[in-house]
Amino acid sequence: MIDRRLFIHFDWGLLGIVLLIASIGILNLYSVTSNEETAGTPLYLKQVLWLAIGLGAMLVIAFVEYRFYTDFAYIVYATAVILLIIVLVYGIITFGAQRWMKVGPLIFQPSEFVKISLILALAKFFQRYPGREGYSLKQLAFPFFLLFLPMILVLKQPHLGTAIVLLLIFLSILIFVKVRWSALITLGVIGLSILPLVWRFLKDYQRQRIITFFNPDLDPLGAGYHLIQSKIAVGSGGLFGKGFMKGTQCKLGFLPEQHTDFIFSALGEEWGLVGCFIVLGLYFLLILWGLRIAIGSKDRFGAILCFGVVAMLFWHTLINIGMVLGLMPVVGIPIPLLSYGGSFLLSTLIGIGLLLNVSMRRYLF
Amino acid sequence: MMELNTQRMEDFKERFRYLKFFVAGAFLLIFVYLWYLQVIRGSDLRQLSENNRIRIREMVADRGMLLDRKGQILAHNRPSFDVFLVPEDIRTNPEALEKIGEILNLPGEEIGEKVKGVKRRPAFRPIKLKSDIDWDRLALLESNRIHLPGILVDVRPRRAYHHGALASHLLGYIGEVDENELKQMKDRIYRMGSMIGKYGVEYEWENQLKGVDGGRQIEVDALGREIKPLRSVEPFPGNNVVLTIDFDLQKVAEEAYQDRNGALIAMDPKTGRILAMVSKPSFDPSIFARGVSAEEWKALMDHPFHPLQNKGIQGQYPPGSVFKIVTAIAGLETGAITPQTQITCTGVFPYGNRDFRCWKEKGHGTLNLHQALVESCDVYFYQLGLKVGVDAIAHYAGELGLGRKTGIGLPHEKAGIVPSTSWKKKRFGASWYSGETLSVAVGQGYLNTTPLQLLMLISAVANGGRLHLPRVVERVENIYGEKLREYSSEEKGRANISEETLRVIQEALMGAVNEPRGTGYASALKQVKVAGKTGTAQVVRMAIDFKKGDMNRMPLKFRDHAWFAAYAPFEDPQIAVAVLVEHGGYGGAAAAPIAKKVIAKYLNLEVPAPAKTEETSSDSVHD
Fold first, then answer.
1. Quick one: average pLDDT of B77-97?
2. B446 with B572, same domain?
3. Does A364 touch chain B if contact means CB atoms closer than 8 Å?
């Protein structure tokens, strides 16, 4: 299965971008957590370990021919959904949410892997060409089922962030493959009309965050406080930043979840606009690179698969930075390759592995 | 095929053109906003981050008060001064640490341990050194403030119970929320260190009492000193809970126990309002609010008489002769006997290979039901029990509320046990022996009841068979005294017992207290007629052998429990009482006088001279 030509066509550029962002992420994590006195392995070392595991997984994923995955797409999807059910029943509860699962010494979040599984399943479904007019509403029933099943399970945990990402990935893919105009309009109308229903379905604290986003003064002690502190952190970095290990905002414990969801604010504080520009540039490059791979793919399955992964990376990056800067409500979405968290890093690198896979086979068959 | 495929990919290429611009636009937007924050507002925000740091100071809401029915305060909040230390501020100044230790009377190592004990603490987050320091230490600390950087004093409300251990089991206590409770909660109202109701009304009414915590954003300088408050959210106090108990009555009841142990509950039989609830020994609930020390906890747990148990609802005891009320009702209702049926007591009733004895060795002679209840003749009820059978007795016990929880709305209520043939089959897989029916007929054997259940029983008798839901809360008020909720009496059910039967029982209970031969004569009052039934719950078999001699010579822990359940006035019942004195001996001697004091107090009667109760003849104070 492994062809010599694969090595010639291996996408070193993509790997380079990913390694660059991941290294910045480790450095940043080291700086943020340096003043915390913790027993056991420091967080940045744990992250290095996860990075190593993730890169290994990425290479394995990349070298197995991707068309092989079509056969297993629904099985992978079903497994991910079952894991979500198991975590709801047996999972570990922290801060009122049930997201984690313990397997031996490892603790992981099945909700992270459900994103990749959904992309796989959708790519398999949409690989059949719908004809010139695009998909009709009736044809979309099954993909909607594929979306709602994990989305409801994830909301039950509750994990609003992941549910939103699932929805965005789905909608992005819908735009990418062709859907009839009439179907799009109907979907839009239905979507708008059930919005109030969704609002009622949300947990109190989730509603609170959204209300707070529009009016931070309402909750100056909770989410409002975090928003203000986060803005102060980023803004105080100025043009060139305070320097590596010199950020005060993050170190003084003003930020919640400073090593996961709010890690970008530490970057902004210590490296300033220049640092942010470089990192933003790298993400932009990563996403364009991914899009190019998608359209360069030889078949629809590969194209949709890559596009799904790119959509996941894009929405995670955009929403996370938007949240840190106070441009979006705080919904708990981490930023790829920078945020601490093993499961998310692993699922990101699996996604990158799929991109590499399609990329190095663009001249084959 | 290849041709077709490339054509199918054309759609994607076309979309790519637009997507490129979309992605570029999104990144540009972020970059522009970053530029605005970091360059245009950069110096402002840098100033904020360097000079003025904003911290949050929690403001704990006042917990709602607990009041008695007349508005007397039973539980409220007082200020407590807690001392905190910011270790970063003192790192360069070890002498100050010693000075702090001196003032607070804490050894230096202990402070060191406290500082190290908190894991993953963000820098500059204060650590609690000592809570609730007294005025002298506070004054000393304040006057030395200038030499003690990093020391903060915070004022927080602290739960205080006005009357010490009074009604402690009913009121309950609060304590710091523990990790398990925190994990179970879906919302995040509680944080580590928040106080939460753990027992009694404090537990059951937590949601009303809690209130909403507030907080304040405070600007502090580089050294962590507060400069000025910014935005704040005022805490909103919890609601007050007005209880049904009468403070003065409660006090009389508690005092009547002196140093004896047991439980007393008084209730308005017509509404289910609990008027007093005593469980002895009691405890001081305020020690939980400050955090019990390991020694205090051990002392409470190891105490032989279980002070942390509300015996009125959690204690399960054989009801003794009080249960003869149920046996009598079963006899009349099933038609096994009439009020005129006579049975002769010779002091002993041989059955199977055992002699079942009456408490009165010489025997009662020939009696009818009225006399048998008044004098509490055991032999009469042995024979009656055999006539009706255990299942009929169990049925009427159930009608009167025994064998299940009353639903009073306090934690850990117990259901008791009412044995029957099917119960024994299920529990032990064995069939019922008729010899066991004899024990049940006089309230011994497998039977177990809580004092509250016997109170329900006597109230139902007093009240024409009506069972009211017992309740301890009258209403909930907000801090302005406006009623938020009011609870009215709720009839849970009505025992299916004829009025004639009830009348016979009522008359007999009145006789048991007011006739000179009655076992409850010690609780007779001149001004009103009291009706009631005594009982003695066997603790050990051996007690029977001591009956001949003086109960007082027995070791305390082997002595029987004394029961008395009564209501008054006979014509128009206003109060029902169930009294249990653990290891008190005979119900008539130990429990009835306590009930008498409570009834007299509630009906505003002159309390008769206590000497009279001691004089009663030895016959009538027996079971």
1. 78
2. yes
3. no
